[in-house]
Amino acid sequence: MKILRVNMANLELRTEMVKEEYRFLGGRALIARFMLDEVNPGCEPLGRHNKLIFAPGLLGGSQISSSGRISIGAKSPLTGGIKESNGGGVTGIKLGRLGYKAVVIEEMPRDGQTYLLHITSAGAELLPATAYWGLGVYGAVKKIQGEFGEHTAIACIGPAGERGLHAAGIANTDGDGVPSRYSGRGGLGAVMGSKGLKALILDDTGVKSLQPVEPVSFKEAVKEYAQIMKESPVVESFRVYGTAGMVNVTNAQGGLPTRNFSTGRYAQAEKISGEKMRDIILERKGKPAHACMPGCLIQCSNVYADQEGQVIVSPLEYETIALMGSNLEINDLDTIARLNYLCNDLGLDTVETGAALGVAMTGGLISFGDKEGALRLVKEIGEGTLTGRVLGMGATTMGKILGVSQVPAVKGQAMPGYEPRAYKGLGVTYATSPMGADHTAGSSVRAQVNHASAEGKAELSRKMQYTMPVYDSLGFCMFISVGLGAHPEVLTQLVNGQLGTNFSVAEIFQMAKDCLAWEREFNRRAGFAPQDDRLPEYFREVPNPIVGTVFDVSEEELDRVHGDK
Amino acid sequence: MKILRVNMANLELRTEMVKEEYRFLGGRALIARFMLDEVNPGCEPLGRHNKLIFAPGLLGGSQISSSGRISIGAKSPLTGGIKESNGGGVTGIKLGRLGYKAVVIEEMPRDGQTYLLHITSAGAELLPATAYWGLGVYGAVKKIQGEFGEHTAIACIGPAGERGLHAAGIANTDGDGVPSRYSGRGGLGAVMGSKGLKALILDDTGVKSLQPVEPVSFKEAVKEYAQIMKESPVVESFRVYGTAGMVNVTNAQGGLPTRNFSTGRYAQAEKISGEKMRDIILERKGKPAHACMPGCLIQCSNVYADQEGQVIVSPLEYETIALMGSNLEINDLDTIARLNYLCNDLGLDTVETGAALGVAMTGGLISFGDKEGALRLVKEIGEGTLTGRVLGMGATTMGKILGVSQVPAVKGQAMPGYEPRAYKGLGVTYATSPMGADHTAGSSVRAQVNHASAEGKAELSRKMQYTMPVYDSLGFCMFISVGLGAHPEVLTQLVNGQLGTNFSVAEIFQMAKDCLAWEREFNRRAGFAPQDDRLPEYFREVPNPIVGTVFDVSEEELDRVHGDK
Questions:
Q1: How far is A270 from chain B, CA to nearest CA, in Å?
Q2: What pTM, to 2 d.p., does this model score?
Q3: How far is it, in rounded angstroms, from Cα A390 to Cα A352?
Q4: Which of A83, A150, B72, B528 lies at a CB distance of 3.0 to 4.6 Å from A186, suitable for a disulfide?
Q5: Are A534 and B42 a contacting pair at CB < 8 A?
Q6: pLDDT in tens, A73-132
Q7: What ipTM was reported for this prediction?
């Protein structure tokens, strides 16, 4: 396995062998270690000293189902700390197959030039992106596919990333070539934009999947894995309702963000629920179940079409529905799908953008429920107006500019679709994760506990936070945890079978501890302190009226999550 | 001496005796200790847990010349750390005479009501501010003087503070009743606005100056003090050219901020110099020398009129000329004076606003040298447009929104009129002061050294930073240091004579050490780390073309300024 370094200042491309100490690191853990080793934590995120890293998981490129996620990392312009944001689609798979442990983008073009990075089995090259820069994600990817082939995997930014907006993400193409699998969080699209890189294009023609070193035990593990996933009732729900199945669950528990996180229950939740979505999709001949990467055992994705059967967006997911639906009191899925499409095309994280719109509504820029107003504001991001730039910087900046203190964000990054006073375990994760507010850093939502009680939630969050990096580093989708979570020995056997290693379960999980330690050390050197591991005052002082409590996990408990003061 | 606490939530006013441990603290040091004792450093600056403190210096209310400055403090919305901003005029003198060591504004009005705080020798009262809220500073003060008498001292905010803009300051009236002595920095006007307090009105009718406890030695010391100041050549220059005399000095040394701190020399500096200003003032029958508080031995202030002899603004000072003149490539004093007047009336810090305009020019919002554009943008702050709100949030926010990394600011607060690559001692102060970029926290400009060399500058800054809190805590204007700086024994004798104490010089200077230790501890608890004690990358990577160097004081030296890692 090798690492490709791309210097955007002198346009040098250099391939080097992976250092021994990186050999059994992948994805998130590799990014954490690499950033700590090579990037000055004090650097400006959109300056030349930051590095943007694309890293498949340790299993990336193998034939293991749902193990092909791509981890993208850098110092985040949104949080000012380390960021790893992983996405589905086929970028991770193809990068792994091509034999790259990581692609590292360094420096900045000195002359304002823009580039495509094209990687094939023959090598890598930088090509001018003049004809692509400025295009929306869908248009750019179509043009790239026309030029480089429909079989390529593409990671691409839109105008939001080009303009350095902090809500900008990076879009990855799925198995159908649709660029809507987002490494959305942390503003990594802006880092890619600052490097003058419009797209990473991966062509794995003539290259096969990475073969398991121990085929016998591997085959056994794969069989068990498939069986476990098949038996999971959660997987069944994902396939039927997509992630949107969560709407009715969180609404019932008082944790569906509504009216800029004022409350946790939306009177019209039924209209934006997974059940409703399934009905609409079936009626309009869309696809209620769809795989973001080939061979997925879960298929939580979907294809959402309008009344004429024209695709509006694929997929429509829970986080987007929560942040751009109930959170804005927008009560129809068609509008949410249109907002989603606009964000995808501009290259924006829907969570951050939805949260920023919610803050804008509290601040009176537009009214709650104003569908046309929301669409118009997002379009302003594309037009590059000052209002558009403010919105494109995310919820924290919007709150600052409008003087709104009710801002659902930690470390500058907006909370996803779980209200933290109703889901206190997730609230602890939002507060204490080195990633900023992020459910994928350690979600407690599926635990069978009283989510609105503070008791035991710091410990629950800790447990989840020290589990997720394993998935994020192997390249696994976090949803496989609903099955494999209870079978770490199968997960371990899959790793050992593929890589020919002899890791124990404990050794696999040590990767999570190392990963978090490196991330927290990076953040410490970047200037983070315990005070940064807090929810905003609003959540500690104003109760969620449905569950009747404020966020009351103590500061001492928050500080103990990572075992230090 | 007593402390007045004003609770804006329940409208309770409570007078209490000063705690023994606060007895020999005043101004900045008292604020530092008080904030550390009473305010949660993690609180939101514009939320109910922050406190706004008005504190005269330890000598406030005495007859000692230039010892009547008012210190105003709180957790700053601009920096997120502790802030003390002192201003001239008569607020500090009258508050001292009335026997208050501090006035502490707590909580926030729950119903959005607004108030005036009126203090006389008979006591204090809160009165509705409905008729005043929304008025500019000049209009509000005129109306207050009509109602409460022209002899009152007034500390007042403008629309910028009312709207929570982070560049908002607090205006204090001078001896002529003109509200232009600003406690400008750190966004304290926004804190006052968040408390629903439009103005503090002090009526000292029937109250005398505080008498010295040891009149004989006091009289001796006052005489020596007056003689020292009289003999200082710098004082003479202040009286002739005002602080604007600095323009030609810094321009010659390559340290006059020009074109958003791109360089340190302005080709048209002569047109905005102190010499030019004096000629204009004399020609137009203004006042080239003027005292901001009665009996001042320096009189660096002035009254600047237009061609018809109508006053435009008083005073016109170096920092404003640098930030709104050369920094914007605006080459005439009349325009600068008009910008200054607008800022004063809206209740804005001219340093922060000028720096934000410079960043806006780099970002292409308007062009360098565009006088009408600059005036129009500042007017937008008054109109409350989104552009106005962005500008009113200061330079760092402007840079973020426009994607400009060339932002002259530290800890979110803009640099004043000294380019830090040319004045490396001040650069160290900008970087390491708990106040954010602030020349008054420890200026090295008058030292006889090679300012553009990094050598010895950390030590020089340290020396100045550990001197200034003495002046800031006694209530002295920092300019008396040009005389008394070399005579700490006279300063000590003044203190002992007035208070009847027996402090040694070392004990007086211990106040500075304590003050900085408390401030830094507050900031540490607020989440500050060594990484926050840095200049922006721009200044470390791009040379000031006049002096030919970048800011090259090492991070290790910066970390050693306060004697810790």
A1: 35
A2: 0.96
A3: 12
A4: A83
A5: yes
A6: 999 999 999 999 999 999 999 999 999 999 999 999 988 899 999 999 999 999 999 999
A7: 0.95
